[in-house]
Amino acid sequence: MKAIMVMFDSLNRRFLPPYGAQGVHAPNFTRLAERTATFDTCYGGSMPCMPARREMHTGRHNFLHRGWGPLEPFDDSVPEILKENGVYTHLVTDHQHYWLDGGATYHPRYNTFELFRGQEGDEWKGHVADPDIPESVPHTANPLRRQDWVNRLYLTEEADHPQTQTFDAGLHFIRTNHREDSWFLQIETFDPHEPFFSYDDYKKLYPDDYDGPHFDWPDYKRVSETPEQVAHLRNQYMALLSMCDRSLGRVLDLMDDLSLWEDTLLIVCTDHGLLLGEHDWWGKNTPPFWGETIHTPLFVWDPRSRVRGERRRSLVQTIDFGPTLLEFFGIARTPDMRGVPLRDTVAADVPIRDAGLFGCFGGHVSVTDGRYVYMRACAAQGNQPLAEYTLMPTHMRGRFPVETLRQAGLAEPFSFTKGVVTLRVPGYSYTDPYAFGTLLYDLENDPEQRSPLVDDDLELRMAKLLTDLLRSEEAPPEQYERLGLPQNGPVTGDHLLVRKQWEQVQAAERPPLTADAFPSSRLGVLTPTRDLLAEPAAEAVLRRHLGALMQSPMLPEAMPFSLLEISELATGLISRETLHAIADDLAGL
C-alpha cells in the first residue's frame, strides 16, 4: 500500500471548477473530481499555515493553547508514527516556513525530505544592492517584498520555479519507488499563496486591459484598491492556480502511467483558503474566518472502496487527514487524536462528527454543524486574558522575547502533554475580534455569509456546541474567560453575545481610515513606528495611548509599519479613537 498527499497553500475552493467556479482554467482539478470523492463540507481547524500542519501531524486542534509554532516534544506526529511502523515517508516542499524558527521541527519527522527555496520573501539569494522594483500598488513596508524581487531574478523560467522543482522531486520519488511497497509521499507547494507570481503562458489565460502599477501581492487589510485593480489581482491568482493545476496534472498522469490507482491512496487538500476581495478584505488572519478562508476543498481516492466521481456531504476537518493515513496503513490512532479516519466517509458518506471547531490563536473561536456557523468574539474589548502553553518558545520568524519569557511560569500538564509540564507564557494576538463582534450565519440560505443573524435560540444551541468542543479539547481557563463562556456548568441566555455586540458587527462595515483623515505633521500616524520610538517625546505618546501593546512581542515586527498601517493589518488593536488621539498628540510635538 502506498499513499500520496498533494497539498496546496491558500487554495480558495470557490475558484475551482468542481466547486462551481466559472472561467477558471483548471481541467486537472475537474479530472481529479471525476476520479475521487469530492468533499463539500471540509473545514480547516487551526489557522493559519503551521498551526494547520501541526493538526495534520497530531490529529488534534492546537489553536486554543498555542499560536504559530513548531511541533512540541510531546506531540504525536503521523509521519513519524508511520516511519516507526515501517512505512517510508518522504516530504518535498517549497513552503519556506519549515526552515524558519516557527516550523523547524516538522520536516525531520519524515525519513527524508527535500526543500526548495525562493517562495515569497524566503531569505534565499543575497543581494546587498536593492533590486529594481517596478512601481507597485501602494502597500505596507513589508521587508519581505524586497527579498521577493531578489528571488524573482532567479526564477525567470517555469523550470526554475520552486513549485515546479517541488513537483519534479515528487515525481522523481514516485518513479524511483513505484515498485516498492509501504511508502507515503507528501508533495507540498506554497502556491497559490501570495505573491501571485507565475508566467506569461498562464497570465494569457486571463487577459485584462489593466495598465496600472504592478499588483500581485495584497496586504492583509480592507480593500481600498480600484475595481480594476481588484479584478487584475484576481486574474493573477487564477493564473497561479492554473499553474498549480498543471502541476497536479503531472501527478495524475504519472498515476495513470504507473497504474498507481490500484493500490495508492491519494489526498489532495489545502491548509486554508484566502480572501480575494470577498467581504471587502484581502488575505486572512485579521477578520473572522469566513468560508473563503476556512471552508476548504478536499479530494480523496481510496483504492479499497474505489469511489470516484461522487460528492460527500459529511462534515470533515484537517484533523482527520493524519488518522486517515494511519488507518490506511493499519496503524491505530493515538489516544490524543481527535480526528477520525475517512475510510467509511469516502466509501458511503458516513458522518463522523456533529460539529467542527476552527479558529486562530487569540481570534474568533468558531463552530459549524455544516449548516450554521457561529463565530464567537471575545466578550470584552482588549481580548484578554490569553496565554500560550509551550516548550518551544518561538514564533513564525523569531524567538519569544526575553521580556515575555520573564513572565513565564510552569503550567499543570494537559492530557495531551503526556504528563509533561509546559511554560505558560503571556499571549498576544494580531487582532482584537471584539472589533468585528460575534457572528452567526445560516449557510443554506446565505452561503456567501453576507447577512449575519440575530437569533437567540439558534445562538444558544451553537454556543452549547462550541462549549462542548472547548471542553473536549481541554481549552485552558483563559479561553473561557476571554470568550465569556462557562468552563463548567450550563450555557445559558446570559452567555449570548450576538445581540450585545451588534454595534460592533455594524461598525466593522465602515470604510477604512485613510491618510487624509489625519493632520499633516512631522511626526504622525503615517510615520514608521521605529522613527516614532527613536524620539523620546513620541515614544511617550505611544506608551500613554497604547499601554500594554508596547510590551507585546509583536512590536519588533511592527517597526517598519506606520500606526495607520498597523491599524489596517491588525484590526481592533488600535481603535479609531485612539489613532486620532495619537495623531493629535504627535502633531503637537
UniProtKB/TrEMBL annotation:
Record SUPFAM superfamilies:
Alkaline phosphatase-like
Q: What Pfam families does the record point to? A: Sulfatase
Which positions fall inside the Sulfatase N-terminal domain?
4-331
> Which InterPro entries does the entry mention?
Alkaline_phosphatase_core_sf, Sulfatase, Sulfatase_N
Provide the leader sequence positions. Answer: none
User: So what family is this one in?
Assistant: Belongs to the sulfatase family.
Question: Under what name is this protein listed?
Answer: Sulfatase
> Taxonomic lineage per UniProt?
Bacteria, Bacillati, Actinomycetota, Actinomycetes, Streptosporangiales
